[in-house]
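Note to self: keep these together.
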Amino acid sequence: MPPKKFKIAELEYFNEDENPPIDVLSDILRAIRLYGSSYFCAEFSAPWGLDEPKTECGTFHVVVRGSAWVTTTEHNSPIFLSAGDIIAFPTGLPHQISGEVGCKLIPGSNALEIIQQNKNPFSNGQNVVTILCGYFKYEKHTIFPLLRDMPSMLHIKSDGEPELAWLNNLVKVLASESRLVHPGSSVVVDRLTEVLVIQMLRWHINNQRNSQGYFQALADEKLSRALSLMHKHPRQDWTLECLGRAVGMSRTAFTNRFTSIVGMGPITYLTQWRMHMANTLLAESNESMLNIAEQVGYKSEAAFGRAFKKVIGVSPGKVRKKG
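Structure:
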């Protein structure tokens, strides 16, 4: 049975109670083409330490067994990691991780090279720690506020939060697969790493406390619903009044709340999302320019072309030629 429809400000609008809202985070993660993998899972004995420089991708470490310390230029005091802790640097923040504060460090790339030769750069001491290290990346040239608002660091103490017990199980499976040389192991490691990264971002969304930014919008019941509507029905002729009514707010209250938290107005966000969709269709499909324009809410190629160039920086025709 098709979902019921009703009218809001002369627009056809779907009843989201019967047609569940889209998962905006999943939509964005697909759009930025999230990819992740694990470098290694190894036992290091003290003294050990890795110096990780600024990177273009996100990095993470999981203390599977034992403990470790992390230092960064953004934090005055070293951060203690106990077994089960996950620490991630989504924006590639430089940092050092070691068994003891102040011990000698080697570049993380050197340690990885040694481990890839089936050797261990830290194997002659005591106080053994098992550590899982990996990375994740995404298309940074995209225009989404989620990338703008990525935190520089996430520290998850899964052993201290009973509801995150399942995260320990995921880490155990990932750590085990990282050590195997079985058929398909590398693909399993990649997919499990991506699941781990998504769960870290979920944790971040659920732990927002009166902050601002895109992650807070995803945690906000009314704003996340508005985002879902824009993502699910991009060709709809949305207005501020229509979006406000759809989430039970006045036009002014909705606009102010959305702008203060997301950092841009609702229509600006909608336009950016539409242009991302159009950019993908232009590059990856053979659909006509007019058809693509209509899919993202424009009735003429000319109006679509002007909006596209303003947001993306080039004409739709240039994207189509490159594709």
